Amino acid sequence: MGLDIILGADALQQPLTGIGRYSYELARRLRQHPDIARMRYFSMGRWVTDPVDTLVAQQRASGQTGAVSSTNASLTLAARLRSTLAANRTAVRVYQTLIPSLSRWQLRGEEHAIFHSPNYLVPPFPGKTVNTVHDLSHVLYPEFHPQARVDFMNMAFEASLKNTTHVITDTETVRNEFMHQFDWPSDKVTAIGLAMDDAFHPRSDEQLAPTLAKYHLQARGYVLYVGTIEPRKNTMRLLQAYEALEPALRRAYPLVLAGGKGWKSDDVHRQMERAKQQGWLHYLSYVDQAELPILYAGARLFAYPSLYEGFGLPIVEAMASGTPVLTSDISCMPEVAAGAARLINPLDVEDMSRALAECLGNEIWLDASRAKGLVRAAGLSWDKCTEQTLAVYRRLK
């Protein structure tokens, strides 16, 4: 008999970033797999209509991002509710009172199915469950988040683990952190690596030109960072390291930041504005999904000095695009880079600045890093991720 899977669908909405991308790539492969007899979706205490068809259509429509269609209004509402909860301490208490009880009622009689939450939180469920825990930043580094979000995650995650049969992490680093922090046995925690979209690949100057011209950039003429502007991503130190470069180097290779404004980032944005006025920084805010692969492929170097990650998907997106990577020597970044990136101490601005200068000026290193990065990225795929996830399901059946 095939597997009966219920997938948590909170993150299955546009724009797909991080956990949403993971949920989407997993969902569209699982529902087509011959070992899956039935696939259903559940979000915030409610059954939802299959959201993957809408997302597949949107991904095919020239990569244009947009709102989820009205047929998935309940899913969009659920995502908005989750965001509200993460910002309001009173809402946290309401969630913990109402949603688990509602979920228990809706999921009654499903003991023969397997419930998989790709987003930390598993509701009360009568059968076996899988919980993907992407990182433990709310536990290990609560200062990286607003207090209400930490309150929400601590309360909901603790309850979620009581409902969890097996945990999946994105890296061995987080797997070890999780087992140490929560004293779980090794046979109940599996590390399964993520991958990047097929849209990320090397491109010719002719393919790059139209999009780069829109942003007044030259191929291989800038350093790129992609990610939310928030404390965990360490953008302030990146700006400081860049400011310490020789003026001629900054002018030749300006820094391009692509990412939305996160919490506690006002000081960073003020520094960004000064850098912009000085002519060595471009801030693109949120970039359309269709243009992001172009920006990756056009960069001379990708800089990602994050302080903590569960996987760091931008690292392999850059590698798959044929772009050399500079990233941190802590957390899971060395594991994900697998010897194909320049590693730096993200807390040492001088070390970061020196490494930026060395990478930008060393053609031999740049060529070798491109080659190593392409090999590393080729070893990761969503098909492999799906097959390894199915292996976890089969162990629980």
Structure commentary:
There is one protein chain. With 397 residues, this protein is α/β, with parallel strands linked by helices. 47% of the residues lie in helices and 15% in strands. The chain has 17 helices and 13 strands. The chain has helices at residues 19-30, 52-60, 73-87, 89-106, 137-140, 147-162, 172-182, 205-214, 235-243, 247-252, 266-278, 292-298, 313-320, 333-337, 349-360, 363-378, 382-396, and strands spanning 3-8, 36-43, 46-48, 114-117, 128-133, 166-169, 189-191, 223-226, 255-258, 281-285, 301-304, 325-328, 342-344. The chain has a 7-stranded mixed sheet with strand order 3-2-1-4-5-6-7, sandwiched between helices. It has a 6-stranded parallel sheet with strand order 10-9-8-11-12-13, with helices on both faces. Helix 4 (89-106) packs parallel to helix 6. The protein is globular. 45% of the residues are buried. Mean pLDDT is 91; it is low at 62-79.
Q: Count the helices. How many?
A: 17
Which blocks of ≥5 consecutive residues have pLDDT under 50? 62-79
**Strand pairing plus helix content: what structural class?**
alpha/beta
What share of the residues lie within helices?
Answer: 40-55%
How many β-strand runs?
Answer: 13
On the 0-100 scale, what is the average pLDDT?
91
Rough outline: globular
Q: Strand order of the main beta sheet, please? A: 3-2-1-4-5-6-7
* Beta-strand percent range: 5-15%
Distance between the termini: 10 Å
Largest β sheet strand count, sense and barrel closure = 7 strands, mixed
Query: Which sequence of SSEs, written as H and E, runs from N to C?
Result: EHEEHHHEEHHEHEHEHHEHEHEHEHEHHH
Q: Provide the gyration radius in Å.
A: 21 Å
